Amino acid sequence: MAKGSRMSADSALLPLAAVVLGLLVGALIMLAGGYDPLTAYAALIDKVVGDPYSIGETIREITPLILTGLSVAFAFRTGLFNIGGEGQFIMGMTGASIVGIKLSLPFWLHAPLAVIAGALLGGLWGGIAGYLKARRGVNEVITTIMLNWIALYLANYIVGSFLLQPGQQRSYLVRESASLSLAALSEMFGHARLHAGIFLAPLAAVVFYILLWKTRQGYELRAVGHSPSAAEYAGMNVNAGIIRAMFIGGVFAGLAGVVEILGVFQYQVIAAGSPGYGFDGVAVALLGGNHPLGVVLAAMLFGTLTYGSAGMSFGADVPPEIIRIIIGSVIFFVASPAIIRGVLRLGKRRGSGEVA
Amino acid sequence: MDILRIAGELINTTLVFSTALIFTALGGILSERSGVVNIGLEGLMVCGAFASAVAAYYAEAAGLTGAAPWLGLAAGLLFAMLVSVIHAAASITFKANQVVSGVVINFLSAGATVYLVKILFAGSGQTETLNTAFHKMAVPILSQIPLFGTALFYAYPTTYLALALAVVVWYVLFKTPFGLRLRAVGEHPGAADTLGVGVSPLRYAAVLLSGAFAGLGGATITLTTTSNFSHNTISGQGFIALAAMIFGKWHPFGALGAALFFGFAQALRNFVQLFEFARGIPMEFLYMLPYVLTILVLAGAVGRAYPPAALGDPYDPGKR
């Protein structure tokens, strides 16, 4: 994992090797299942870059992954494990839905307000876990997991009781004035669901960078992450740092939910289960070395694989679940650098003709 | 009389919902007492549920109707144990971040089981429904006790197994040399190593046992409540078991109590319409109940819970 703000050659090489190994594992499993991995991967690539619509939809898929990845990465940087991206995402959706549906405002006010409402609600949801960790010493892994479930049912209750379109299992559409859709851009990409979120996500990555490496606050947060006791000794308020870090992480994940509602779907469904972007954010953050640039690149890879997996199932008849196996393997290899170093060393030795 | 009948059924349903949680939480205790975090319990349960549904289905097809659920139970145990080797290797041998490794287990299990189901069942996302799952059985004599005999002693064999295993795990952990060593490795691996206790072998054993227990937990769900396997058969039970483990302060009987409590919270939803005063409560709030209660309890109602001291630290003999 990258220690500082710059990404070293090693920190770029490890994820790359992990991705290659992950794709290899996927290929082996496809072979074992009687499928042709080359046809499958070709179908995946074809699905992603085949036409402007697919390219646009792939970008759409990448957008929330950048944001949930940033959410997990920000917490990681401050020594916290935010497995609650899922719940913060759901609360972000809910905040955006409430403001987007219930209020009637001019567009220059409505959309920003809906975005802020979702971001704040996501932040609040992360902040609860931060508060419980800081003041009560409750492990944030457990609270965020619990809060994921509570968010799911709370959102279902809110949608079902206050926002429901009669006869449907979903809310009314958000008002035109709150929508983040970009018709002109969408037109260019064969009516793919492109929206302002695709600019918001990279912007969030920049904010992440500035916040953590260019401000005093960020310095403190990193110090807390590095060594809470040293930070405490240096006179920093560790507990406040924990709450703040979880809040900011929640804001990122909340924004991911916001753009899905205001940009993509325009309504919120009564969901049977979690949307999954929060958990994928864990993978994205890990693969991206918890660095904003790394997160953007990792999200691009994950988004491409996820969107392309439908192509694999259509073009090569491979069940799309294979993609979860590939992603899981990639994280496994990223998390166990010893394996990758072993494989790389093996390759080098062979390459230079040495005998083991 | 009516309120007694309802109470009896509530207790019985509580036992049904608790069983899988008891197994899995016990598995979590074994792993974490040895110092290895196991967020992967959810995935391991998924593996157990998957393997048991497949094995029991093929056993039925082969005409082994009587043995099918038992074969399913064994298959669930073995398959999840096999998958837990990945977690053990990553977190013990390769010193990976244990939480991350657990997340990987969850990812891989979710993908691999549905992938395999689609291959085995011609593209369908779920297994065929089993004809022979476990049946509830009455304990002779005890089930004849008036009022609560049937509530407590008319249950699935897996429930009795889970209750028995809670005692076994307690005995092994606190009354045998193996248990003492396992706990030592989780509290102070360096000291244990100095005394000649093999840290890695013990941790491997503990993680594999946690896989076996979580596998039993997952299998219990397909073999008693759902009768088939699909992607949402487990849906969070592993995480609740994890909470039960912490709630129960890493002690087998504490976890048993917590699992019963969660089972009760889940069972309550099925009965709420029977109580006049509770009819106005929206279902969503009842679904939230176990999770809200967990947070409230962890946040202070029962005091601080202290995990094993070395939990989460890969053991590196070079660093003292």
TrEMBL record, chain A:
A Gene Ontology molecular-function term?
transmembrane transporter activity
* Keywords for the protein's UniProt record, in alphabetical order: Cell membrane, Membrane, Transmembrane, Transmembrane helix
- Cellular location(s): Cell membrane
Per the record, the domain of life is Bacteria
Look up and give the membrane topology term: Multi-pass membrane protein
Question: One GO CC term of this entry?
Answer: plasma membrane
Q: Which residues cross the membrane?
A: 58-76, 111-132, 144-164, 194-212, 242-263, 295-316, 322-344
Q: What is this protein called?
A: Inner-membrane translocator
From TrEMBL, chain B:
Provide the membrane topology annotation. Answer: Multi-pass membrane protein
- CDD domains the record matches: TM_PBP1_transp_TpRbsC_like
InterPro entries the record matches? ABC_transp_permease
The answer to whether keyword Transit peptide applies is: no
Q: Where in the cell is it found?
A: Cell membrane
Keyword Cell membrane tagged = yes
Entry's Gene Ontology cellular component terms: plasma membrane
Q: Name one GO molecular function term.
A: transmembrane transporter activity
**Per the record, a Pfam family?**
BPD_transp_2
Print the keywords alphabetically. Cell membrane, Membrane, Transmembrane, Transmembrane helix
Q: Which domain of life is it from?
A: Bacteria
Q: Which residues cross the membrane?
A: 6-29, 36-58, 70-92, 99-121, 153-173, 204-226, 238-264, 285-306
Would you tell me the protein name for this molecule? Sugar ABC transporter
